[in-house]
Amino acid sequence: MAHNPPQDQGVTTETPFARALLIGLSLIFLLLVLVMPLLAVFTEALRKGFPAFLESLSDPETFSAIRLTLLVAGISVPLNLVFGVVAAWTIAKFEFKGKAVLSTLIDLPFSVSPVISGLVFVLLFGAQGLLGPWLQSNGIQIIFAVPGLVLATVFITFPFVARELIPLMQEQGNADEEAALSLGASGWQTFWHVTLPNIKWGLLYGVLLCNARAMGEFGAVSVVSGHIRGQTNTMPLQVEILYNEYNFVAAFAVATLLALLALVTLVLKALLEHHFSAELSASRRH
Amino acid sequence: MKTKLMRHVLAAGLLIGAALGVQAPAARADQALLNVSYDPTREFYKDFNAAFAEKWKADSGETVTIETSHGGSGKQARAVIDGLQADVVTLALEADVDAIAKKTGKIPADWKKRLENNSAPYTSTIVFLVRKGNPKGIKDWGDLVKDDVQVITPNPKTSGGARWNFLAAWAWARQANGGDDEKAKAYVTELYKHVPVLDTGARGSTTTFVQREQGDVLLAWENEAYLALDELGAGNFEIVTPSVSIKAEPSVALVDGNVDAKGTRKVAEAYLQYLYSDVGQKLAAKHYYRPAKPDLADKADLARFADVKLVTIEDFGGWAKAQPEFFADGGVFDKIYQPAQ
Question: What is the pTM of this model?
Fold first, then answer.
């Protein structure tokens, strides 16, 4: 193959050998770091056969971990959808003092280690924390309970929707909205009928990424979880527990679910990019 | 319109969230106890909790669900201090219970006297787990500082087991050197130079040694070492009992502040008492803990424990003295430990 240069060489000037080498290297790299680990997860999970795989997933503690993960994602993703749209709208469509600061703040969860994100909530809401005494006297439990898990997840996944929308909205400018307003639409109508349709694919894309992270987050939720079995362990935490109990089939079975989630996210993302590349182009430039 | 679709998606998401949220508390039983424990007790408490729930149902007619949380003992104590609503704590050492008592006042200072045997229903000791055939020829503490030996032990700052490991090593070196603490310190300093990685809890260290195949010897709880043999094939590892070790007394305590707030005092007290019953003691021995009342346990289970000369924490002046001296910030461990290169 390397001795037979194709005619439509295009703009690159590499020899066919160099091309084959580069392509080969990237394929081998992908195989090593992406495909093999993924396959390993599935083979470990199915090591003792499919019935054992199913049985390990029906364990009540694992089942409650799945339910908790869905609950946490079910609350934090819609919240971040709203926050994200509001933040993006504010930054992209208006000029105001401190805009740069706000824009930087949105990125904060990306740059802070998840462990710190978790500890911040312990410092705030823990029994020894700032608000701890007040919360305790009112019988409100935040840390080591579902609210803490949701808070940590919301914090961690906050930038995903906003970061996806801001470049897209900036690119689109205000022209459509101005036209709508000048034709007598209310602010709400403008948003609902003009802005939202313009950003819907970028929004969906952001929500997908946000959801993937919300379900997969380990560090921050580990700090605020308290690890009560069947109560405050999300799927990633349950994977660690099962693994530490030498229950490898079950650990990898749960990991399989997380891997499947990642695959579904990737496929949906690829489909979105394929069909709506023009509308998404702005958002992929950052 | 596509926006309609999005509205539906959003509404569905909220509905699912709400439905799940409503379901979660409904799944709880009449009474729920939270036992905050340390790493290696997982298997023991799984069995014990089932036994206790059955007994409580028979005695009182109430259904009790026992929830558990496991992790490094120090980390677990920290979580209870930060507000984890434990009804009982069953931790690796009394210093951790003391920390909860001191920082929160939820446990009275004299908690240790409230239950038999210094509130330690079972004890354990520290042994070595080595690879099959003992390729490095490890027989006693002195062999751990040979040039080519790597030792796996967790971090004494976060793990109770690791503190027992540390003190057991110290005790051996002190005896070997005619009671000279300076020489003991030199030995322990050397020992930690042979530690390539400090995990936060005992179970993490076991996984490091067994699964990731790091190191030549694991300093482990006796029960943890036997469990590793059971779970991962006796053919791969051997247990070596050193000439001197330490009597580790994992402590259990009622968290008065929490049980009174939740109204679970009665069942929580019964839970701890049940640890001392024949059922509790038999289960402890079955899971390789040395029972506080050996006469209640099965002879066959007891025969598995090797005879070993055991020092106790009293030889170090008790935890009240040993904890600040060795493990507090700026204590001996902080001075001697340099992360391995």
Answer: 0.79
